[in-house]
Amino acid sequence: MKTGIKRALCLLCAMLMLVFAMTACGGDEKKKDTTSSQNSEVASNEIVSALEPEIPSDSPYIDFDPYATISDSIKGTTVRFATWIDHTQTEGAVPLANFEADTGLKVELYTVKQSGYVNALMTKMASGDIPDVFVSNEGDGCFPATIQIAAPINKVSTVDLNEPIWDQSMLATGTIDGNVYLVNTIGTPWSGSNMVFYNKVMFEENGFKTPEDYVKEGKWTWANLLKCAKDIKALGADYKGIHLESDMLTDSLGTSFVKYDYKTWTFSSGINDKALLEGYQWYADAKEQGLLDGSIASFASNKCGLVIRGPYGLKNTGYFKDMNPEDVGFTYLPTMEEGETPLISSIYRMYGICDKAPNADAAGYFIRYWLDPDNYDLQNTFLTPAAGQWYYTLINTVATQKYFCFDKPCANLIGEQVSVFWSPVRSASSAGVKTALDSVSNKVDQAVAAANKLIQDKIAADREYYK
Q1: Confidence (pTM)
Q2: pLDDT of 290-349, one tens digit each?
Q3: What angle do CA 108, 109, 115 make, to 5 degrees?
Q4: Residue range 33-47, pLDDT digits in tens
Q5: Quick one: which of 218, 342, 369, 436 could link to 425 by a disulfide (CB 3.0–4.6 Å)?
Q6: 224 and 89, same domain (yes or no)
Q7: 453: nearest Cα among 140, 135, 148
Q8: Which structural domain range is residue 86 located in?
């Protein structure tokens, strides 16, 4: 894959803007970004650079144009993309606007509510109203629920899965019985992992150690995250500590209520995992100390010190869009003990082609186009260049270094909300966590059985259909 002309023009424009900005401010010193030495370097360059695959000089993909062979028989046809997001108002507006001019194909946003996404699509598809592309993201719109509406992408002739742009480690997670159902790319603008956001002003003006200080010392642990929260709470009754969802904590420990081994396409229970018990005991201790009282809103109003959330917080249209972007710090999730390496708590955002899609060939080109960072204005996507480069630092890990939690969609498979697993354990005291875990074991087993049946049914159906 070559770096596109659009990318080159975008980088050139950003460099010119930097020169102009430096001239206009008469050489005034920029506010120092103390998030990390790496982020400081990025901020001074003012450029967001997407990840690019390494391509050998003798590769057939040098100067490769993936759209050069689009058949005349599908040019002018429309790809329907099933999403709950109005992408004309997101960074996706740029590729949506340029897709037809660059490929000769059209795209239409096929709107489906996020809540009940898969069930709604299954109903529409059963009636013959079948879109072409779907997204597998969070909640009941995530794997394994989405496997019910997915076609094997490897059987779509317009998708070359050997092209270096595809993230092969992620493709492996979306492969079942030799068929690839879900894909994403290296450098994708649509991925994400959870991280710690912290209010730099609150920490620095009060002389508190920041999360990044602990990272540099090799002491960024969950215990020191609590220390950060305590420092902020000590400022007064109006101040809040941490906003945290418990699954992001246990993800970093490599566990959840329902676990998935993508190498064997098998779900299992995590109830007896030592790490799950350890994570929820930490959670209970923090709750009892009144440190889990924060919110995104209180963070944005400078009353909360720490938020643990995904990459939407890095976007200029995201959680913190009304804050001074230089006040938003970000770093990795902590470890339980010094010297450990946590797994990256990650969002399983993948894309697929709908089963029996009417325009599957064109859909293959659209997914390739939608997931190519060269088709985006990355310089205007993130809060700051440092935030954009941090996004790429965080996602630049192979699937084996990430952890994906499928508790929500698996609970939905048995007609329950994920609270059926989480609520009893979240409300337990530290001493009562084990008892609370045992109390939901039966529901977890039901969800595991339902998820495994769903996978086996899909394997049987596609073996029959494609035999």
Answers
A1: 0.88
A2: 999 999 999 999 999 999 999 999 999 999 999 999 999 999 999 999 999 889 999 999
A3: 155
A4: 333 433 434 444 578
A5: 436
A6: no
A7: 148
A8: 78-191+347-371
